[in-house]
Amino acid sequence: MELPKVGLSNKELKKLFYELDQEDQNWESGKLFSYVFSSKKKYRNFIEKILLQFYHKSGLDFTVFPSLLKIEKEIIDFAIQHLQGNQECCGNFTSGGTESILLAVKSARDYSLIRNKTNSPEIILPITAHPAFHKAVQYFGLKKRLIPVDKNLQVNLKELENSINQNTILIVGSAPSYTYGVIDPIPEMAKIAKKYNLLFHVDACMGGFLLPFLKKFNISIPDFDFSVDGVTSISMDFHKYAYAPKGSSVVLYKNKEIRKFQIFSCADWVGYTMINPTIQSTKSGGPIAATYCTLLLIGEKGYLNLIKKKLNALKEIQNYIKKHKDLELIAENTFPLLAFTSHTVNIFHIVDEMNSKGWYIQPVLSYGELKEAIHLTITYSNTKNVDIFLKDLEASIETAKSLPSNLFYNKIKPYIEKLKNHQISTKDFLQKIIESVNLRIEDLSRRSASINEVLNLLPVNLREELLTEYVNIILK
Ligand SMILES: Cc1ncc(COP(=O)(O)O)c(C=O)c1O
């Protein structure tokens, strides 16, 4: 773009942003089973006002904006109580699950380094752990040990214990994991962590807020929080099932001894003394104020109401999948995340067909012995659409059955071998894919079945290289 000599009028800008808006999936339609957690409009309208009222305040300096510190303490206090922490627990508000996880891993690294535990720290991750931990490994120069899951999709405890060595600093468990919605055996993992004197992080970004409420529906929930001796930190997001606007999570610690390593102070420059408890420095006061407002506005009764609708939708969709001759439910859940696969239909075609009907459902690539799948995150806005969703899903399955599989794969097969043998660069390979599918590169995400079929056949390192190359091309 070029900067206009004279700023555009409101009318022109309205038109411009209306047109941009039309390019996206309509997140208010309830047809997205991911990415947007939206509650009732009457809540949103009020919360957005508070978001704007506090948007321009900066969380960089709480001596200038003491209200933001006050609000943070209230939110952390709530989070600690919600997750059964004690007086020693502490934590901070962050911009999202990834920031909370990065901070927890960084704190664990530095806490261990200062104790001369090791110069080559390793963390133990179940294969179901969120990519944010892999990002932390990459950013902070750590090593990862990946642990397989059992048939029930929980981490294999024996393999976990066997992988501990003198460099291990941290074990990670999920409550629940994103893809399958399954909760790891947190008490058993905590026992192992204690036995070897290790830190243990529970990623409750998805489940931390919602799980304690499920008990009120007589659903039995395994212990996953600070009530479990051995859990040393927890991440919990408010911008997921608490329905706060985006940019809202907390990282909590068992005590301040560990949290201390998260805080960054700098007096080694010519300016004011810089103190950042979290990764961001300048940060808007909007998300934190809006989160506080969301919790107070919706309240326990409101959340129970929203949850009831989600549980009903989950049951209905799970029942449909269980009865369907072409589908297979991967895990039966009481948490509103689910994944299913098929042994008779190409699920990547189902994804594309649903996409063409205005839905967004998420493809999951195969991993080791785990088959490719479709993931659904069920949120309040989806609950009004279950009937039509199932009807469209049925039609999509029928269409998918009639579509050819692996046509594209046959065209690209010779290049896959070359790529695996490093006889062709990832960039050239990507070019071959683009030529073969006859699509503009920008459209690949909309009709993605062919690409997913290819990715599905590649080893993890090549998948990563290819995706990096792709994004490097499409971004300016
Ligand atoms: C279990 C889990 N952990 C961490 C994250 C990362 O959260 P965010 O996308 O807010 O960074 C997610 C996101 O879906 C998640 O499901």
In words, what does this structure look like?
Strand 8 and strand 9 form a beta hairpin. This protein has a 7-stranded mixed sheet, sandwiched between helices. Among the domains are: 244 residues, Aspartate Aminotransferase, domain 2 (3-Layer(aba) Sandwich); 68 residues, no CATH class. The chain has 476 residues and is an alpha/beta fold. It is built from 16 helices and 13 strands. The site of pyridoxal-5'-phosphate (PLP) has 12 residues, from helix 4. The site of pyridoxal-5'-phosphate has 12 residues, from helix 4.
Question: Which CATH class of the domain at 50-293 applies here?
Answer: Alpha Beta
Number of helices: 16
Distance between the termini: 12 Å
User: The CATH topology of the domain at 50-293, please?
Assistant: Aspartate Aminotransferase, domain 2
- Helical content (DSSP H or I, runs of 4+): 40-55%
Number of strands: 13
Order of helices and strands: HHHEHEHEHEHEHEEHEEHEEHEEHHHHH
